[in-house]
């Protein structure tokens, strides 16, 4: 039997494809040769659960992360995130805003970074007071592609807090391009789906922003079947080529706060112009919030509930005092019950409410 030191580089590279993210770093600490393996182009990594990006430690200024897979916290010094509010996560990258209202796009584990253009002055003036501006200027931010794989990626953000307005940017542009929307119209969520950005409004209107041959003033085009207007927080998900709409409502049911949450899952079929109600999501789990929506195969992770929807804080619409922090937990689609996935309550702070992140150092 060959010793570990005799394994070829190809075999070692193949082994890394079965390792979860933290074990990649542990692998590199074994010896110099193994560390050099990690610097090469490797096979795709093993499927992984997303991490939670949490607050910054006051004394050390290290950023706190929580691994669902290990049930463990990591405290990592990432100077690019020091003092910044995390307003979005996509393809393993974070959108972060500092106290001067300047924003960056950063991969926290490779330290690759893009400086983003200034936000439109009009939206900065809508934020009050100034010290809360970095938490109000961007409601959500996502990417079309991983910047490490596509240099022509695009970023889409929702500007504002009460009434959100979409805007996009791509490398080389000096400013954000704001998309005109009707008055009193706000966008609840955005998703990159089959080559275009799709948006769902507070009026349950589904729209698309085509990314080919933009007009000088690009506009949204309504698509799909008529969706009955719902009053909860809405999310859009690219579910392996199917578009899903999740509506999360919260009602106070007597003294029982755990059963006041309801999530409806709808599949708008854009080709057939019809709607399907989904009672389950084929045993998968969804992770929703300020991030690009994530889904994982629950059968690969014993600690992950099948047919579950995992939320983080996204809005202040459901107060903890009234509803028991229902924006931070798991909804079971089968039992229609609510539970928690995090050992202690994590509430929004001036430097970051919890955000899902799929680590992407590869």
Automatic annotation (TrEMBL):
InterPro entries, A to Z: F-box-like_dom_sf, F-box_BR-signaling, F-box_dom, KIB1-4_b-propeller
Highest taxon, organism lineage: Eukaryota
TM spans (from-to): none
UniProt xrefs under SUPFAM superfamilies: F-box domain (SSF81383)
Domain F-box: 4-41
Record organism: Rhynchospora pubera
Domain called KIB1-4 beta-propeller: residue spans: 65-332
Name this protein carries in UniProt: F-box family protein
Pfam families assigned: Beta-prop_KIB1-4, F-box
């Amino acid at each position: 039997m060959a010793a570990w030191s005799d394994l070829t580089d190809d075999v070692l590279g193949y082994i890394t494809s079965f390792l979860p993210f933290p074990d990649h770093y542990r692998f590199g600490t074994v010896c110099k040769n193994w560390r050099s393996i990690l610097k090469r182009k490797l096979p795709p990594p093993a499927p992984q659960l997303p991490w939670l990006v949490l607050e910054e430690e006051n004394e050390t200024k290290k950023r706190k992360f929580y691994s669902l897979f290990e049930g463990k916290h990591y405290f990592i010094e990432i100077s690019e995130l020091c003092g910044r509010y995390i307003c979005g996560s996509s393809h393993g990258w974070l959108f972060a805003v500092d106290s001067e209202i300047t924003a960056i796009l950063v991969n926290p584990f490779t330290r690759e970074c893009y400086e983003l253009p200034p936000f439109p002055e009009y939206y900065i003036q809508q934020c009050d007071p100034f010290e809360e501006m970095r938490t109000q200027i961007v409601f959500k931010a996502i990417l079309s592609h991983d910047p490490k794989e596509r240099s022509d990626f695009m970023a889409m953000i929702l500007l504002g807090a009460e009434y959100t307005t979409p805007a996009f940017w791509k490398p080389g542009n000096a400013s954000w391009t704001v998309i005109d929307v009707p008055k009193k119209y706000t966008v609840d969520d955005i998703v990159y789906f089959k080559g275009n950005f799709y948006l769902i409004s507070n009026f349950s209107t589904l729209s698309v922003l085509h990314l080919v041959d933009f007009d000088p003033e690009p506009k949204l085009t309504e698509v799909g079947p008529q969706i009955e207007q719902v009053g909860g927080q809405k999310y859009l998900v690219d579910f392996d080529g199917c578009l899903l709409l999740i509506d999360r409502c919260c009602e106070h049911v007597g003294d029982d706060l755990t059963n006041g949450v309801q999530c409806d899952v709808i599949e708008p079929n854009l080709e057939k112009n019809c709607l399907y109600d989904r009672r389950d999501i084929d045993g998968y789990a969804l992770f929703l919030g300020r991030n690009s929506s994530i889904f994982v195969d629950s059968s690969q992770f014993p600690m992950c509930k099948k047919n579950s929807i995992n939320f983080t804080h996204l809005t202040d619409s459901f107060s903890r005092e009234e509803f028991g922090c229902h924006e931070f937990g798991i909804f079971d689609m089968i039992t229609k019950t609510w539970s928690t996935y995090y050992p202690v309550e994590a509430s929004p702070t001036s430097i970051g409410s919890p955000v899902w992140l799929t680590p992407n150092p590869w």
